[in-house]
Amino acid sequence: MREINSNKGSAVVSFAAVIVVIYGLQMAKALLVPFLIAAFLALISVRPMLWLQQKRVPGFLAAMIIVSTIMLILAMVGAILGSSIADFTAALPAYQARLDVIVQGFLNFVAEHIDGIKSMQNIGDMIDPGWAMRLVASILNSLKDVLTNAFLIIFTMIFMLLEVSSVGTKVKAAFGRSADSLEGPRAFLQNLGRYLGIKTIVSLATGVCAGTLTWSLGLDFPLLWAMLAFLLNYVPTIGSIIAAVPAVLLALVQLGPGAAGATAVGFAAINVVFGNIIEPRLMGYGVGISPLVIFVGLVFWGFIFGPVGMLLSVPLTMTLKLSLESDERTRWIAILIGSERDAQHALTHPASEGS
Q1: Tell me, what DSSP letter sits at residue 221?
Q2: Could you tell me if 207 and 226 are in contact, meaning their C-beta atoms sit under 8 angstroms apart?
Q3: Which label site among 26, 116, 121, 189 has the fewest CB atoms less than 10 Å from its CB?
């Protein structure tokens, strides 16, 4: 009986600790989000920096070249998109009002011409077609607010890159671990960096194609739709859908049903080509996380860190999985949230899982 009560008490304490940690992360998100973005950029940049070092470029100079390039890109994007975000936010009420009229007119038409569906007139009260557009405005404005901490992000990223070459020696000296004991975390970080690098390239190509599509159709704010497609491509599965819906709705409001259909088909074609053909061939492997956990992680990290948490949900979940794998007591959780291939590997190599 004492053992049962002890287990219950331990479970309650663990649950309370998790709640406290989640609450603490939410309270500190104003400070943590810039550091997460810096870590994200550092993981993408570490491979080009190491390549420069192999070409005999000094470490500090290599880091400064990478950071300066990123600063230039961010400055160009900010200058181009800053006014577009403001204009879109200002025009959003007019777009939403027009969209409400179109949806209500469609529902009224259906109710008048199809017997037995008179209740369709009341459905309009439960439908909020402008939700997707407001979500776009929220994501873009949140990202703009985060980038106001650009100096903190850039300086943090510089110090992270400068630490890359010496972190192995420091860990060995501090904890007495050999290089072999760091092989697991090192391989994980290399795979995560490779994943983010390839994902960034594919997302950039997706954004360029989305921007070209919306510009060729005459849609307002094509640069915004390009940026949105680029950002939301980091969100697996549903990100491409979220990116396409507001553009399709705007095409319906601005240009009519034909343009809306063309926009939908164009976005679908872009996502099929890049998401189902090009990206899997470049990756060569999955993210090692269950699709259900990816979706739950999207909601969880979005709840804690807002839109930025949604964009970084996969790398954050992968990092959580690594930390769970490192402890024998929590390794079973890592297996449950991992992919089927990870579970099969745990069954066939139990010794390696426990080592």
Answers
A1: -
A2: yes
A3: 116
Range of weakest confidence among 28-37, 56-65, 122-131, 133-142: 122-131
Q: Which residues of 244-272 are buried (b: 16+ CB within 10 A; e: fewer)?
A: bbbbbbbbbbebeeebbebbbebbeebbe
| Cβ partners under 8 Å of residue 190, min gap 6 | none
- The percent of residues in the chain predicted with pLDDT above 70, rounded, is 71
For residue 138, pLDDT beyond 60: yes
Helix (H, G, I), strand (E, B) or coil at 47: helix
Whats the size of the chain, residue-wise?
A: 355
Nearest to 157 by CA among 39, 69, 44, 68: 39
φ/ψ (deg, to 5) at 289: -130, 145
Amino acid of residue 139: I
Q: What is the pTM of this model?
A: 0.74
| Predicted confidence band of residue 105 (pLDDT cuts 50, 70, 90) | confident
Round to whole Å and give the CA distance between 347 and 66.
42
Confidence (pLDDT) at 263: 93
Residues 40, 311 contacting (CB under 8 angstroms):
no
